[in-house]
């Protein structure tokens, strides 16, 4: 074996030391112990009301996730993609958006959907198998869940290019200026579409923020399988800035995403936010993480729980009383009830209706197929069992 | 009434211009479509007149082009995407099949996807690999997409405008060999037929020849040659591949009893197979012979020095017509 030939810079020098805890560039405003720290570039003067609001959002988001997971266990959902542990990343990002901003989700952004005003019950339809996406994306500026990972980052970029053409970028009017938040995960960062989205966004200076929840696992594949460098540092290679934020710190995620969105709204182009977090649950309810990861890792991340640290901070600073927790508990219970009862009441789709969704208007071909199927189904109805088929 | 003589390239260019004038939400996107006017010059002069925001030179990434078009459509635009060559559409295949085709269905009809994906298709231009293919069946097989193929300059002018005005995604196939070949008289004041209709382009009584895109010209030549031998062929330009407009085809085959379909794509699981099956279902008692298909063999597109041997030509189509009579 010969010594390695020198070829370009030493990657360890360029990208820094081991980053298993997020590394030195991790933006944090609230430590896992609930201590408020400050950052020279990203900070925000949170009012007590804002802090209570963020806490409430995370608790309710976790409740949505817990209820949906239970509904799957009870056989009411076919599958559920859990977000446990990623509440801060999603609420921080979701609350940093303005109503005119548009979010493109993967299939796990239940917290962002909640922030955008989508009734959480609507999220269940896809997982129950009653629809493929039960909300109107343009009603809440929240795209439909996208199962092919990374595909939506291109939609986000194209949407942002549309905003540029509509003259809603860089006008200086805060009610008008808009941006797009493109969600994806560490696994999707390997997809061609995500890399193409980076290139298009950079090329056209599109007002899009690429928000990657690096939850360390793509089903069973660890982040090391997707990248040899910290993900946020990839952005520079595409020509825009990347920031790594503590994705379990709702304050930091909010502050960083807010700055990134403002930058985009102002016409200063795309950026990349890597929310460094951890998938506490399984990939979905059909997954078994005990086959591929160690319990120690899970225990380690439990200490960084996004909700717990804010709770500690609120309590320690006297920003909440017992009434607050009691009210929130009642609200979460009501939300759970809404999801449980609502889920079971979601109507099954009608087979004949499906023909009408393929195109903006039914073609003669599809109408003929629908009518044939309708006649076939009708042939089973009482009194029509014979002859209806002829 | 004033007419002008135009090529297919000119017809498409004029049609695109008309569509952009009619609706400022219409955008053109693709590789080299701006200053260069596209490698076939179909978008010639449009960026100069409509600006870089509406005629967008894109990075060289087909999935990126189609994927961003989806986002544009969600924002209310009507993107017209140019895929430079047929064989380059595959990097965009996922976005076309999983996103463009499914978004309306996924949203239970709440979201429209008015995207036109223009693809120069077919062979006969002496090109290298990936520049001569006929991928239509792959898209016609996908629910949620509409697929049309123009065959002449006048149709090019009208059909591209109709496709752009349509609210569903349209794969728009252009026979690249014809771009600069023949001229035809365009009367801009005429009323075009609806987009999703097939058309009898030559009436006949003895056998029906079906074609679309580049093979329409071949079929018409066959009809001329057959006439000199005393045989009358009816030629139908299918024009729309999904949905199919089978009415004129059934009417014709019920009269002639014989049918040959020709396309440049592979016959195995191609458009001809679907058309033949439908004819068999609807015209069974009228048929004097099985429906025959003339198309490509099951091999990748060959080196261009022998492509004329490989492409369906006058002799191979007439041979098939003879076989339907010999049956």
Automatic annotation (TrEMBL), chain B:
Residues 6-181 form the Transketolase-like pyrimidine-binding domain. CDD domains: TPP_PYR_E1-PDHc-beta_like. The keyword Chloroplast does not apply. Keywords: Oxidoreductase, Thiamine pyrophosphate. Its cofactor is thiamine diphosphate. One of its GO terms (molecular function) is magnesium ion binding. InterPro entries: THDP-binding, Transketo_C/PFOR_II, Transketolase-like_Pyr-bd, Transketolase_C. SMART domains: Transket_pyr. PANTHER family: PYRUVATE DEHYDROGENASE E1 COMPONENT BETA SUBUNIT (PTHR43257), PYRUVATE DEHYDROGENASE E1 COMPONENT SUBUNIT BETA (PTHR43257:SF2). This is Alpha-ketoacid dehydrogenase subunit beta. It comes from Nocardioides zhouii. The lineage of its organism: Bacteria, Bacillati, Actinomycetota, Actinomycetes, Propionibacteriales.
